[in-house]
Write a structure and sequence with these properties.
- This protein has one domain (6-180): Rossmann fold (3-Layer(aba) Sandwich).
- The protein contains six helices and ten strands.
- The protein has helices at residues 6-22, 30-47, 75-80, 117-123, 160-165, 172-175, and strands at 48-49, 62-67, 84-85, 88-95, 106-109, 130-133, 145-150, 153-158, 169-170, 179-180.
- Helix 1 packs antiparallel against helix 2 (30-47).
- The radius of gyration is 15 Å and the shape is globular.
C-alpha cells in the first residue's frame, strides 16, 4: 500500500476520531457500536501497509475476514461495498471456525471466539494478516488491534510488535490514536 498524502491522512485521522466520539453519544444503540467498528475496519486499510506479496495477483481482492458469530450483520458489507484499496476490491468473507480461515488481509475475531482465539492466532502465525478483535486482552495475546469499549467509547489498543512480526507497518497517525501494548510473557 502506498503512503497517503498529508491532507488525505489528516482527513482520515479526523474521521477516525469523529467515529470514535460518535460511539460515545448517550442513548447509542448496540447496533451503532458495530457500525462504528465497521468504519474503523475499513479505515484500517488506509493506515496499515501490507507487503506486496500479500496478494496472489496485482488486482486480487482485499479480504476482510470475520471469524465467529458475525456481530456486524450487513453493516460491514455496506461500508466496503464498491470500495477499493488501490487495484484491490474489498470483499468480506465469514469463517465460523479457525480451521476455515482462508486467505485474508484482515481478520476480525468476534467475542464468540474467546476460547479459540489462540488457535486463530497460531493458524495465522506470522502471515501478513492484520488481526483485529474485541476480545478483552487480545492485544496482549497476538491481535494487532483490539477494540476496547470504555464508557460507551470505542478505544483502540495496538500491539505494534505483533504487527511488525507479521510484516505489517501501522501508520504513526493511527498509533497516536491508540494505547500501545506489549505481548505478555510467553506469547
Amino acid at each position: 500500500m502506498r503512503a497517503l498524502g498529508a491532507a488525505c491522512a489528516a482527513w482520515l485521522c479526523g474521521l477516525l476520531a469523529l467515529v470514535a466520539l460518535t460511539a460515545g453519544v448517550d442513548g447509542a444503540e448496540a447496533a451503532s457500536e458495530y457500525q462504528v467498528k465497521a468504519v474503523f475496519l475499513f479505515n484500517f486499510t488506509h493506515f496499515v501497509e501490507w507487503p506486496p506479496q500479500t496478494f496472489a495477483t496485482p488486482a486480487g481482492p482485499f479480504v476482510i475476514g470475520i471469524l465467529g458469530d458475525d456481530p456486524f450483520g450487513t453493516r460491514i458489507d455496506d461500508v466496503v461495498r464498491n470500495e477499493r484499496i488501490g487495484e484491490h476490491p474489498l470483499v468480506v468473507r465469514r469463517f465460523r471456525h479457525a480451521e476455515e480461515i482462508g486467505d485474508c488481509q484482515m481478520l476480525f475475531v468476534a467475542r464468540s471466539e474467546s476460547a479459540g482465539f489462540g488457535q486463530a492466532v497460531e493458524r495465522l502465525n506470522h502471515r501478513a494478516v492484520l488481526i483485529v478483535s474485541e476480545i478483552e486482552g487480545s492485544a496482549e495475546h497476538g491481535a494487532m488491534i483490539q477494540f476496547a469499549t470504555e464508557s460507551s467509547h470505542v478505544r483502540l489498543r495496538i500491539n505494534a510488535d505483533a504487527a511488525r512480526g507479521a510484516g505489517l507497518v501501522i501508520s504513526s497517525k493511527l498509533l497516536h490514536l491508540a494505547e500501545i501494548v506489549s505481548p505478555r510473557s510467553g506469547d
